[in-house]
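Section 5.1 Outputs to date
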Amino acid sequence: MRVCNHIDYRRFDIYRKVPKDLTQPTYTGAFISILCCVFILFLFLSELTGFIATEIVNELYVDDPDKDSGGKIDVSLNISLPNLHCDLVGLDIQDEMGRHEVGHIDNSMKIPLNQGDGCRFEGEFTINKVPGNFHVSTHSATAQPQSPDMTHTIHKLAFGEKLQVGTHTQNTISFFPLLSHRYKKYREPSMPLASHDYILKIVPTVYEDLSGRQRFSYQYTVANKEYVAYSHTGRIIPAIWFRYDLSPITVKYTERRQPFYRFITTICAIVGGTFTVAGIIDSCIFTASEAWKKIQIGKMS
């Protein structure tokens, strides 16, 4: 004779249901429930915003990240000299590897300003990854002017690839100190016959997006001074010098987004914790109100 044992799986239910007629709604409970739902919605939207946004994490290490560049750095320069004719303006490049180029003209353009009395120089060129300088001067001119006015405005000075950082990131990166404020130009309204030195410390930079694609660029710090130079033969022809050196430290920026499982865990903690705390508050208020009612009934009797 075979006995069939019927297992009632309902006994494993840890969420036992209370009959509706055994519950008692209150105005206080309704108010707390509404506040609870609003609070949960607020926290949920805050966490969702943080989940969608991309965080930029940075790290430092010693290495040359862009080994495929052939030891070269691309430079983009845009500068205006309102009191110097375009025939006199030139770009000179020299470094510790023996490079000495006067009057660089490749990938450059001169635009007359102020009815020909001034000049805007725009150029793109490469420099070696060794200490050196490039300068805007009249050294390449056929005839040197008597009093060259080196008053200038720097519109752009950039090294390496232009990086477009995503608009949904929580951090911002300034790659170009001379343009640290958008639409602000770096001006030197100074002595006309003075030379200008910009001392640059170039820092290799790697930017890795969410897909793992790496792009290479360069940040730099800058300090500047203004002076009138003399030698034993007299005053030296003024120029606008950009003296640079490379940092051995590489900065790497990595885009990261909060993992989905962490987002779900946080949402569950918010919902569960809020309902639990709200339930405790409601229970305390209800218990206190019931006790107060009993006290009042006892006084009346």
